[in-house]
Design a protein that fits this description.
two-stranded antiparallel sheet, five-stranded mixed sheet, alpha/beta, 17 helices, 459 residues
Length: 459
């Protein structure tokens, strides 16, 4: 009897849609779709029996309203023209007065073009956030009845970067002046106009933890003749980028030692990325599975504590105390095991390299324990390189250093938008519409990390 009762309750829940994920999704979708503008007049779906003989039936529930089914309809892009009128005025009572008229360039970002901030914002996001090739954008515009050449796209992109340059300067110093920074880099290729070959350069990525902002920067050394030299990972190149890190207290990076000397000389605490150390154990599993799995087990315990801290929303002293109470004993056991295990394996083996990497950098790998603002790993910085890496598949190189610098500007703004949960297209559209009329002292309010999300409702 009990089994029969449970079976009936199960059937009842299916009929009513209770505990049915698909039914729940349908209800959520309907609630959302009711808020959207209606696409044309409603379409009435009559029962087949009614269509055979309408005289036999009468409609009920007219007063309470008909049941409804909603579908999401995608409409093609609409092209509309915005008309800006320019009235001409003369001074009253002065017949010799010179007529005055507003200048379009005082108000609009693209006065000599038909392009609007809405159109340019969409193109920039497609190119640098969605990583669409120029050819794909051209074809998409053609399908929508709009002919925009790639040359025009490049000119609009250059004009956009010129408009945003004052904002990018503010953004640069806002990130570099942060106290808790994550850093990484990736190679990029730029055409050398003299040799007509691609030179290897280096695009650095810095994430400011305390301001939720990201910065991409490509810089190069210049010789006495003014020729651009390759910008690599050498410490003197890093110093050119990081000379303004006057407020930095901690900097997390990968295992590259070229930065360590500079950080030490400037009194900045060096934190090493544990994701790189963990990767060494992952790569040694095929050769020595047992010790590799033990090392990965220690990292599993450490990440469990970090997940607990994130789930509870712990910050500041409370976060530091949890780390010292729970993670430090794990690290003590981890280092003791690695020290004893290191002598058991021949040098040159994969597991020996993983253990040596851990023991050599154990101080830097454990430095995050005492700094609540620093994460256990540098993944937040490495994730930011996804658009750059995907863009490398669609465009193999930059035509010149200025092109790489302009790309770094867009990567910086869009990554910061992602960190602050902003729609990059809406943000860029608003900024391009208002940057001409925004006073200089209020420009910092347009930065993604300082932006008021309520203003996006105006876009």
């Amino acid at each position: 009897m009990e089994l029969k009762r449970l079976a009936k309750e199960s059937e009842r829940s299916k009929d009513t849609g209770e505990d049915d994920p698909e039914s729940e999704c349908r209800m959520v979708d309907a609630a959302y779709l009711r808020l959207l503008p209606q696409h044309g007049a409603p379409v009435v779906l009559y029962p087949r029996e009614y269509l055979k003989d309408p005289s036999r039936y009468v409609e009920i529930r007219k007063q309470s309203g008909r049941d409804a089914h909603y579908e999401l309809v995608l409409t093609p892009e609409k092209h509309e023209a915005m008309r800006y009128e320019l009235p001409v005025f003369v001074e009253k009572g002065n017949p010799d007065a010179v007529p005055i008229q507003a200048k379009v360039e005082d108000y609009r970002p693209y006065p000599k073009s038909f392009a609007s901030p809405e159109l340019v914002g969409k193109m920039e996001v497609e190119r640098f956030a969605d990583c669409d090739p120029i050819y794909t954008q051209e074809k998409r515009h053609e399908r929508n009845g709009l002919s925009i050449s790639r040359q025009l796209m490049d000119k609009l992109h250059a004009r956009t970067c010129d408009l945003l340059e004052p904002l990018f300067d503010l953004h640069y110093y806002d990130v570099i002046k942060g106290e808790y920074l994550l850093g990484d880099g990736s190679p990029v290729r730029i055409v050398n106009t003299e040799t007509h070959k691609c030179d290897k350069h280096y695009m650095a990525h810095v994430v400011c933890q305390d301001k939720k902002a990201a910065l991409f920067n490509v810089g190069s050394r210049v010789n006495m003749d003014g020729n651009i030299l390759s910008h690599g990972r050498a410490s003197e190149d890093l110093e050119l980028l990081c000379k303004d890190m006057t407020n930095a207290k901690a900097f997390e990076k990968d295992g590259y030692s070229g930065r360590s000397k500079w950080l030490k000389n400037n009194g900045i605490t060096e934190c090493a990325c544990n994701a790189h150390a963990r990767r060494e154990f992952e790569e040694s599993k095929a050769e020595d599975p047992l010790p590799s799995r033990v090392g990965l087990g220690f990292y599993t315990l450490l990440n469990m504590v970090e997940r607990y801290i994130k789930a509870e929303g712990l910050t500041g002293k409370r976060k530091k105390d949890i780390r010292m109470d729970l993670e430090k004993p794990i690290w003590t056991a981890f280092v003791s095991w690695a020290t004893a295990e290191y002598d058991r394996h021949p040098k040159g083996s994969a597991i020996s390299g993983a253990l040596g990497y851990l023991l050599k950098r154990r101080k830097e790998l454990m430095a995050y324990l005492k700094i609540p603002m620093m994460p256990i790993e540098n993944n937040a910085c490495e994730r930011g390189f996804k658009p750059l890496v995907k863009g490398r598949k669609t465009s193999l190189f930059f035509q010149n250093l200025m092109g790489a610098w302009r790309a770094s500007m867009m990567y910086s703004f869009f990554e910061t938008c992602a960190m602050n949960h902003l729609n990059p297209q809406q943000w860029l559209t608003y900024v391009l519409n208002s940057i001409k009329t925004t006073p200089e002292d209020r420009l910092p309010n347009l930065l993604p990390q300082n932006f008021d999300k309520r203003l996006l409702k105006l876009v």
